[in-house]
Specification:
Number of helices: 2
Helix content: under 10%
Shape: elongated
Strand content: 35-45%
Oligomer: single chain
Distance between the termini: 32 Å
């Protein structure tokens, strides 16, 4: 597989929908964070979630879960009857992990694959060996898939419905995903190939035959008997079995970057790091989804889900509530405790948040503007010192000097994200310095104070 850009750049580009066509590839593109789990807890796959904060990827199995630490080691928890938890390889360095119904597999740093757990269909013993280099692994219920470095696909395990024998040939694939008895593959041109079972309990539901043929995607996922993907415009599309609205309740909008699916429920990750869930909710798979932003990875087991919440890379400051004894320009203050900037024409203040880390070397920090004026130009600004003065309709809290960074157009919800390197555009000299950030946006004609623009709240980043 050939990445379209460096990992940090790829992550930034994908989050600014419409500015670049880039694939969200599984693996180690996520900032360090903690695991949050919800849904069915019959095997402690929720209550047993680890408390460490150095994870970079999460993966759901049927009734167990896995997470990868930043050092490449793995932690597993939940149902363990077949050793899918206790037989997790210790000490090795992995770049990605995946969970099946009762087995697990992981990709080592040298491109080889390790599998463990239930082996009734050869999903462990038939794992590939030798010098072949793989770049991604995925799992269905009882079959597994892997992507070779040349973009070709290898499948093994249960082949009752052609999950193995019908695997597409050729190269040029960039992601694979497995469902209960079907699989998907995403091609470098954005098209999707599907194979395996096309029904659920003898009911034709079309998770294979209804795969869209004329649309382009950047990320894919398989549920039990349904499939979904993120299109190049950031919208989500679902198809297949719809018994609990896992298809018809697919969220609208063009603000998504990643999808995941359980047996009969689905998840989608918004550009601001918030999560949407829909479908079956008998164990809280939907209603229990965490609120808030800052999530960077999502995954699902049969009836539970998990997400990676990034560690905070920044501290908020500069609110429009007057608590610092500086009111907004025309007393358009917002309520204390909301963490917003000064009141804008949309009836609230705008916010600035961040995902990624404050690591100068990693350079993966992404700024996110929200609650601003939709469809308007906006810009991220960096300062070297703090100030607090009313400016335009908002409050300017950094400067001396200021660095103008990415210019964006805000989406339908008034949200948008940075897409270039903060280190480069902000001329950050190195670790050990502190910089202050705000977002500016146009708010013409109907702005609260009539001055045509406003600012978000601010962030403090101590670069390390």
């Amino acid at each position: 597989m050939r990445l379209l850009a460096s990992p940090a750049t790829l992550t930034r580009l994908h989050r600014v929908l419409g500015l670049s066509f880039a694939f969200l590839l599984p693996g180690s593109l996520h900032a360090q964070g903690s695991v949050e789990s919800w849904g069915f807890n019959g095997n402690a796959q929720v209550a047993g979630s680890p408390t460490a904060t150095d994870f970079t990827q999460v993966a759901g199995g049927g009734f167990h879960s896995l997470a990868r630490h930043v050092n490449g080691t793995l932690t597993a928890w939940g149902y363990d009857f077949h050793g899918q938890v206790s037989n997790t390889t210790a000490g090795a360095v992995f770049t990605q992990v995946a969970g099946g119904k009762l087995h697990s597999l992981a990709l080592k740093v040298d491109g080889t694959i390790v599998s463990w757990g239930y082996d009734g269909e050869g999903q462990v013993t038939n794992s590939p060996t030798g010098a072949t280099v793989f770049t991604q692994v995925a799992s269905g219920a009882y079959h597994s898939l892997a992507l070779r470095s040349n973009g070709s696909i290898l499948s093994w395990g249960d082949d009752l419905y052609g999950q193995v024998s019908d695997t597409p040939t050729g190269t040029g694939f960039v992601q694979v995903a497995g469902g209960e008895y079907h699989s998907l593959a995403l091609h470098t041109d954005g098209s999707i190939t599907s194979w395996g079972v096309d029904d659920s309990s003898a009911n034709d539901v079309g998770q294979v035959t209804n795969t869209p043929g004329s649309m382009l995607f950047t990320h894919i996922a398989c549920g039990g008997y349904h499939s979904l993907g993120v299109r190049t415009d950031g919208s989500v599309m679902s198809w297949g079995f719809d018994n609990v609205n896992q298809v018809t309740n697919t969220p609208a909008g063009t603000v998504f970057t990643q999808v995941a699916a359980g047996a009969y429920h689905s998840l989608a990750l918004r550009i601001d790091g918030s999560i949407v869930a829909w479908g079956r909710d008998n164990f809280g798979q939907v209603g229990g989804a965490p609120i808030g932003t800052g999530f960077t990875d999502i995954s699902s087991g049969d009836n539970h889900s998990l997400a990676l919440r990034a560690n905070s890379a920044a501290t908020t400051f500069c609110f429009g509530d007057g608590a610092d004894n500086v009111d907004c320009q025309c007393l358009n203050n917002t309520a204390v405790g909301l963490g917003e900037g000064c009141l804008n024409s949309q009836g609230h203040g705008a916010k600035l948040s961040a995902t990624g880390s404050a690591s100068f070397a990693t350079d993966d920090l992404v700024l996110h503007m929200s609650q601003a004026r939709s469809g308007q130009p906006a810009m991220f600004v960096q300062g070297s010192t703090t100030i607090s003065i009313p400016f335009k309709d908002g409050k300017l809290c950094m400067g001396n000097p200021t660095e103008r960074m990415d210019v964006i157009f805000l989406g339908a919800t008034g949200a948008g994200s940075s897409f270039n390197s903060i280190v480069t555009t902000g001329n950050v000299p190195g670790p050990g310095v502190t910089r202050y950030y705000q977002g500016w946006f146009r708010d013409p004609v109907v702005s609260v104070c009539g001055l045509g623009s406003n600012f978000t709240s601010g962030l403090i980043v101590n670069w390390i």
